[in-house]
Design brief:
Porin; eight-stranded antiparallel β-barrel; 62% strand
């Protein structure tokens, strides 16, 4: 099941990126993020991690994107035997990004999340979705990206989610 889900996700990402075939080039970003567990993320409140993404504009105002990130949730209210806090999330999402101006954007995303919460015996993969809004520092430098995001997935009949604040470096 997991192999089929991962294979389908890779096919979806490649399909979205290959749809955009014109003069606009790819853009990549790599950075760090801080996450805040806002709904049912296993008593964890704060997480740290990183992200990597790619996008391809297919018009002046729209782009397709793919983003993968990793968050390790550290700020925990509970004590675990032998300090075994192991909550993490690794979503891989693809979506459409709309540029309101050359620097300001919003996006909607869907994909899958691989995650482990402290009350789980083993990790799981579930469908995930998210939204994001961000700012690329003015076009003269256009190397820094600041983004606010929300990622959500369902586990044990509970919708769980977390917000992120990330800073990344754009490579055009």
């Amino acid at each position: 099941m997991k192999k089929r889900c991962v294979g389908s996700l890779v096919f979806l990402l490649l399909s979205l990126l290959s749809v955009a075939q014109n003069k606009f080039s790819y853009s990549y970003r790599f950075g760090a993020q801080v996450a805040f567990g806002l709904s049912d993320i296993a008593n964890n409140e704060v997480g740290i991690g990183g992200l990597a993404g790619a996008e391809k504009r297919f018009s002046r105002n729209f782009a397709v994107e793919a983003e993968g990130s990793y968050v390790y949730f550290t700020g925990d209210k509970m004590w675990y035997e032998m300090a075994k806090n192991r909550a993490f999330a690794l979503p891989v999402l693809a979506g459409i990004k709309a540029y309101l101006s050359p620097q300001v954007y919003g996006s909607v995303r869907a994909g899958a999340a691989w995650f482990l919460l402290n009350d789980m015996n083993k990790s799981a993969v579930r469908p995930a979705y998210g939204i994001a809004a961000g700012l690329n520092i003015p076009k003269s430098t256009n190397r820094i990206n600041i983004q606010l995001g929300w990622t959500s997935f369902r586990y044990a009949d509970i919708q769980r989610g977390y917000g992120t604040l990330s800073t990344s470096i754009n490579i055009n």
